[in-house]
Amino acid sequence: MSAFDKLMAIRDLPLPEKDEVSITGSDPVLNTHFRLAATASAAIAGIGVAVNDLWELKTGRRQAIAIDAVTATAALKSKNYFQAKNANGVFENVTDASHEANRGLTGIFQTKDGRWLLPHFGLDHLRRRMLDLLQADANTESIAKAVAKWDALELENAIDEARVCGGMIRTNEEWLQEPHGKILAAKPVVEIIKIGDSEPEPMPAGDRPLSGIKALDLTRILAGPITGRTLAEHGADVLMVSAPHLPQVWSYVADTSHGKRSCYLDLRDEREKQTLIDLVKTADVFSQGYRPDKINQMGLGPEALAEIRPGLVYVSINCYGADGPFSHRGGWEQIAQIMTGIAAEGVQSSSGYKPKTLPAAANDYITGYLGAYGTLLALARRAREGGSYHVRVSLCQTGMMIYDQGKVGTLPENLNLGMSDVDSLCMESDSHLGRIKHLAPVLSLSETRPYWALPTPKMGSNDPRWLG
């Protein structure tokens, strides 16, 4: 089944008219056999259909939806196209040097038993803990020697116990034989679970599909912020909640925060936690990316907040999903690729076989779009029949969907999307970073053009309150 058909089945409504959705172009766009363009196009087109459902509830009208495969694929690399003007008035790429150094350590290494394993070094504290576990120095040669002393599953279990991120590369067949893989295979790629009763809530008045919708965004790096950014481009008031002590990759924050506001609340402080709960009382959406055990320990789980605010749409975004033996583990883009079989497809060269990751953070971005899709569907259900809802998406479920879409055959040479290829898809805006250039919203709607009403904010620069 195509990704778009899978998403329409989750919507549980009659299919849109044939002329409502236009998806043009096809794979390959990037240097991979996986159909990233088709999968991304399906997720973004699904958002368009879900926006239409809300617009129809508000106005009785539907509108035409269009997405192009190249544009959708560019959206999987939007951070690559984020630029700021330098002192000479020239746009140049914005990067986080610390994060790039950590990325340079993250790779696929062979283990003592001949398997392959990826240890992840994405943030400074994770790098330190992983190097301590491996007893390695911060260079790939030392890391390779350290990994080679372990059997793959032995090291994966040690990584789990140390609360860092990484794992053994599995084929898709091996993943589907895992108890965790079996659990995820039985679920839809977007779960929408009714967790409480409440009266129907009509969509608020306003000239945009999400006018009047209030969304709290407690997510970081990278899928969760995409969910919030997507809600903002259709008119929601999206308030990011972070704190100075929480690790961030500031270049990612800059690119995933268009249209949002940003406040600091230290949830270790009971008074500041109460401020968050007061915000929840009048919120429509609460999106979070914590490990399931952590968010419940904080007293901010879905059922607890639905008691405080009946009618809340609660969104959980993580790597492994909510159920199964791996659900407590943290993870990143590359972890979903190595677990679900994507990386195992690998490359064969004169030096032999080696697993290979994708040329884009496809699981992160597509999962973010799927989180937004589920949120929009839940808001429509709330408007029609009432209720509180828990929307669940995960990087591994997205990875499984990407794998299921099959692969293209021969790839043309030099496939890529550089800045010159996407320049026409970019926009400029003013921000705390000065004049910036970045990818504009990629979805086309005939009546309610997606746009961000606010520039990307400086973290912590707003008060913890709603606009209206």
What does this structure look like?
By secondary structure, the protein is an alpha/beta fold. Helix content is 38%, strand content 17%. The protein is built from 18 helices and 19 strands. It has helices at residues 3-11, 36-59, 69-74, 97-105, 124-134, 140-147, 152-161, 172-177, 179-185, 223-232, 250-256, 270-280, 292-297, 302-308, 333-340, 362-385, 395-404, 419-422, and strands at residues 21-24, 65-68, 83-85, 91-93, 109-110, 116-119, 166-168, 191-196, 214-218, 237-242, 261-264, 285-288, 313-318, 347-349, 352-354, 388-394, 426-431, 434-439, 444-445. The strands form five sheets. A seven-stranded mixed beta sheet has the order 8-16-13-12-9-10-11, with helices on both faces. Strands 4-3-18-17 form a four-stranded antiparallel beta sheet, with no helix packed on it. Helix 1 runs parallel beside helix 2 (36-59), helix 10 packs across helix 16 and helix 16 (362-385) packs across helix 17. It is globular. The mean pLDDT is 96.
- Strand arrangement in the largest pleated sheet: 8-16-13-12-9-10-11
- Which descriptor suits the 3D outline? globular
Main beta sheet strand tally, sense and closure: 7 strands, mixed
Please tell me how large the radius of gyration is: 21 Å
Total DSSP helices: 18
Number of strands: 19
Mean pLDDT, as a whole number?
Answer: 96
What is the structural class?
Answer: alpha/beta
The parts where pLDDT drops under 50 for at least 5 residues are: none
Estimate what percentage of residues fall within beta strands.
Answer: 15-25%
Note the gap between the termini: 43 Å
The percentage helix is 25-40%
